[in-house]
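Priority: medium. Attachment 1 of 2:
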């Protein structure tokens, strides 16, 4: 077994102590029941078939509740382990007159191992014995409350069976009302709308009758039994179960009729706990949550004794809510900081502020020094991996990823891979979030379906804009080089052309026609030759590349086994054969090009000789005429300088064409960016009300959460860029900071609009008024004209008859389009911006946002920071209880209400073993008596937290 497999086995052992959902049926009959409809016949054979069927049912826990029969149930409650069987009875009670014609069916369920005689003690004196009972008996003239109390006295629990049937307590309650015997509204003659619901008096009766739960026929009936206590006005849920009432194995094995109940241990005590806390522990089939995925299975921190705070810390996390508790100095925050380091979040510590980041670094350095940190992670795709990092205070990221057998998965970056998501909030980071609208918007976007894909497209467009600008800058540099060639000779193109055309008379054209043709051939061949020579130089540079460069210096420093490995690797790669072959192929290509150049040179030489011959022929014809010879010489000189500048101009115009193409592509990207932002804005607008609804579903009754939303309104970065980038200049725009030109300009246009207005020379696109953030901003026409004229990067070289681009100006204009802008999206608490509120108010507003934003694991260190106990009890605990079934939540806390009222499935107790060492002393759910003791002993207010939960559910 590999070390990773050993770790996973150890973590699974610790996770076995957590509370998880189990499949439960509490109303089922057996072949011993008179109304059994399954296989009948030989008792031994039928019992064996029944037992085998139970084992194959898939249930975890069931109660056998035959009509006035319990011997078989008592017998099976001992040997059968899956499902665990609890002995019980279904009893029929006949109320006193005048309702003696009605029957109320109750389920009485007892601990495993109970004997028949113990169960039968709930029967009234002189009632028939179990052996003689037929199952059709009834208990007459009985007070229901007294019977329930008797079941409790005998150690059992009592559940109202099929509450809405003719044998249910609700039906009898209605009949009582109709005969005016005091339990319902007098005078009602038919089933009114109120009766179809649950009357207030019936609610009061249910809360005081002593029932441990009730059975309903369908999930939608469940909401009727979320009742209010008279004392505190709080909502309290009765334990509501889905009736099964199976009378054969086929009925019993119907998952759609099972109730799912969260238990730490499967059995009577686990059942009792689940019935006491139905809000978090009882689910119908359609409500059963899937195991949160992805999830962290556990954390292991190991290091040498004496230098490491944790020498062997193994923590296993539940799929739902895990609370890490312990006295101060026991390492709660240190354990969570180990998670921060492994997941690579040290690299973004600057986002939480310098002071907080410094504290985090100091804590990590003090507690994780010399530690090896491992995290077992279940990915969304079902893969289970180990994330491992050796802590190094000087490096922010050291993580590698392995599978159980030790194979390295070669994941370069855990966070950017998207395969191991985690949301981490350390000390006071929740409150800090309330001051940062940009981070609030990022979290809110995680609640908006489809916006993530559009945001990715927007970022892609911005990246392409940056890439296109760099390509344009390269092109601009080449254009500047061509304009400077031969001391800026391109600007004399018109001059040279005019001189040549003056000298190139019709007579000269005829005289020089053959010479001009020969020179043209030289020019064409020379262009091809120059291109071939550049290719040769490129291949010459390639031939000098050595794939083994640096190895001669590295190998002597490597261990001998590595050097041996490299010798074998060289053989496998056949480098001795391949490298000479590569060089040979490069050399062959160069030789072909060299030969081509030689052939071209011979063509050029032939054309030159021809030109010389034509020139001598011309001089021969005009040799006696000095004036004509001088004219011919001047014409030849003018032609050479014009040819030279035309060659520069040709290359310049080719480069300019490339610039124009790049600008066209850049403009298209600007359009994509603008349209993508419009789509993002539209999606956010459509989902705004739904997001507000979701946020308010998790807040306390006396606060309202809303969103301040201004489409395209986040332009603070744009205004800052205009103010500091050098785009605006004092000599052109005056004291632009005093006139607030950056703010006004950013209010009337977005970055791409400003860039395009300049390139299009369209000041009217900027001269306008706009209202953003409540105030109106205006850019006047003269200001707009100065902006466009001053930033215009294009002009014309009349001498060269070419367009000119100012490299610095064009680059600055294009950079404008890359400046981010976005919608303004921020959280309001009772219509006030959270950034203006107290730390506690900011935290209370941010908690629903953090909880709802994703389904990835959520880690919070001390979520109670900045919250008073009232806010913890009314907001934080409810959020954790509701969200823990949708995502894994891990918290380190000093507040017992989070642990107790949050109904933590896993509680990890840390202890300070010395001043410099901490460790884990307990794992287990809140059901564990030892955990309860630890909460009471360690956490201030622990006993009061348990009493508060007891009052909430009115426990005895």
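Attachment 2 of 2:
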């Amino acid at each position: 077994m590999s070390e990773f497999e050993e770790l996973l086995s150890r973590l699974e052992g610790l996770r076995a102590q957590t509370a998880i959902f189990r499949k439960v049926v509490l109303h089922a009959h057996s072949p011993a029941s008179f109304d059994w409809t399954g296989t009948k016949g030989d008792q031994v054979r039928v019992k064996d078939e029944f037992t085998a069927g139970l084992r194959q049912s898939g249930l975890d826990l069931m109660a056998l509740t035959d009509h006035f029969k319990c011997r078989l149930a008592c017998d099976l409650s001992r040997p059968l382990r899956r499902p665990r069987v609890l002995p019980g009875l279904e009893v029929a009670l006949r109320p006193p007159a005048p309702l003696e014609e009605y029957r109320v069916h109750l389920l009485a369920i007892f601990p495993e191992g109970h004997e028949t005689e113990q169960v039968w003690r709930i029967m009234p004196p002189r009632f028939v014995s179990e052996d003689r009972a037929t199952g059709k008996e009834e208990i007459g003239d009985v007070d229901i409350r007294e019977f329930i109390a008797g079941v409790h006295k005998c150690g059992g629990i009592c559940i109202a069976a099929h509450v809405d049937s003719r044998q249910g307590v609700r039906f009898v309650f209605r009949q009582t009302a109709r005969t005016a015997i005091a339990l319902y509204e007098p005078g009602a003659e038919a089933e009114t709308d109120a009766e179809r619901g649950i009357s207030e008096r019936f609610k009061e009766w249910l809360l005081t009758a002593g029932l441990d739960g009730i059975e309903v026929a369908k999930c939608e009936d469940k909401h009727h039994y979320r009742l209010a206590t008279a004392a505190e006005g709080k909502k309290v849920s009765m334990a509501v179960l889905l009736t099964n009432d199976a009378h054969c194995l086929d009925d019993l094995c119907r998952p759609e009729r099972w109730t799912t109940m969260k238990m730490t241990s499967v059995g009577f005590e686990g059942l009792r706990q689940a019935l006491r806390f139905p809000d978090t522990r009882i689910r119908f089939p359609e409500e059963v949550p899937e195991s949160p995925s992805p999830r962290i299975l556990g954390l292991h921190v190991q290091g040498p004794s004496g230098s490491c705070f944790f020498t062997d810390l193994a923590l296993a996390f539940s799929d739902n809510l895990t609370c890490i508790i312990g006295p101060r100095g026991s390492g709660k925050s240190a354990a969570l900081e180990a998670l921060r380091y492994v997941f690579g979040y040290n690299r973004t510590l600057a986002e939480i502020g310098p002071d907080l980041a410094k504290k985090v670094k100091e804590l990590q350095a003090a507690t994780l020094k010399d530690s090896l940190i491992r995290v077992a992670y279940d990915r969304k795709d079902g893969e289970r991996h180990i994330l491992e990092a050796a802590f190094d205070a000087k490096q922010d990221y050291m993580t590698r990823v392995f599978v159980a057998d030790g194979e390295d998965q070669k994941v370069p970056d855990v966070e950017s891979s998207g395969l191991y998501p985690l949301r981490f909030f350390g000390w006071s980071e929740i409150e800090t979030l309330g001051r940062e609208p940009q981070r609030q918007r990022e979290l809110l976007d995680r609640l908006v379906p489809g916006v993530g894909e559009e945001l990715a497209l927007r970022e892609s467009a911005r990246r392409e804009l940056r890439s296109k600008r760099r390509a344009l800058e390269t092109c601009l540099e080449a254009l500047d080089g061509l304009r400077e060639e031969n001391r800026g000779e391109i600007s004399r193109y018109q001059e040279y052309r005019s001189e040549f055309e003056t000298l190139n008379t019709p007579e000269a054209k005829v005289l020089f026609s053959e010479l001009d043709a020969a020179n043209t051939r030289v020019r064409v061949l020379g262009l091809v030759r120059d291109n071939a020579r550049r290719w040769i130089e490129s291949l010459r540079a390639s031939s000098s590349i050595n794939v083994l460069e640096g190895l001669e210096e590295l190998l002597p420093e490597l261990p001998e086994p590595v050097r041996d490995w490299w010798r074998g690797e060289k053989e496998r790669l056949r480098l001795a054969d391949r490298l000479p072959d590569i060089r040979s192929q490069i050399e062959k290509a160069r030789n072909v090009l060299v030969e081509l150049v030689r052939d071209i040179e011979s063509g050029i030489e032939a054309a030159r000789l021809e030109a010389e011959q034509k020139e001598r022929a011309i001089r021969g014809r005009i040799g006696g005429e000095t004036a004509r010879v001088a004219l011919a010489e001047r014409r030849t000189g003018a032609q050479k300088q014009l040819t030279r500048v035309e060659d520069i101009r040709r290359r310049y115009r080719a480069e300019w064409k490339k610039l124009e193409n790049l600008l066209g592509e850049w403009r298209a990207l600007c359009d994509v960016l603008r349209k993508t932002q419009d789509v993002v804005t539209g999606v956010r607008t459509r989902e705004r009300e739904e997001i507000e609804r979701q946020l308010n579903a998790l807040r306390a009754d006396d606060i309202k959460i809303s969103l301040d939303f201004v489409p395209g309104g986040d332009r603070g970065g744009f205004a800052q860029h205009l103010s500091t980038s050098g785009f605006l200049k004092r000599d052109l725009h005056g004291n632009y900071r005093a006139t607030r030109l950056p703010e006004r300009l950013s209010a009337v246009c977005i970055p791409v609009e400003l860039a395009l207005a300049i390139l299009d020379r369209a000041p009217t696109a900027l001269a306008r008024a706009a209202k953003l953030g409540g105030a109106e901003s205006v850019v006047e026409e003269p200001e707009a004209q100065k902006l466009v004229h001053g930033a215009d990067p294009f002009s014309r070289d009349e001498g060269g008859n070419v367009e000119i681009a100012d490299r610095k100006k064009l680059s600055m204009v294009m950079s404008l389009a890359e400046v981010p802008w976005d919608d303004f999206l921020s959280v309001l608490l009772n219509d006030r911006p959270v950034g203006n509120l107290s730390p506690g108010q900011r935290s209370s507003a941010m908690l629903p946002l953090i909880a709802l934003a994703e389904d990835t694991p959520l880690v919070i260190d001390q979520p109670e920071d900045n919250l008073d106990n009232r806010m913890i009890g009314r907001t934080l605990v409810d959020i954790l209880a509701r969200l823990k079934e949708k995502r894994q939540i891990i918290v380190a806390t000093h507040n017992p209400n989070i642990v107790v009222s949050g109904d933590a499935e896993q509680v990890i107790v840390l202890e300070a073993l010395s001043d410099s060492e901490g460790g884990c002393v307990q794992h287990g759910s809140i059901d564990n008596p030892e955990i309860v003791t630890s909460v009471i002993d360690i956490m201030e207010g622990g006993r009061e937290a348990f009493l508060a939960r007891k009052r909430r559910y009115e426990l005895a």
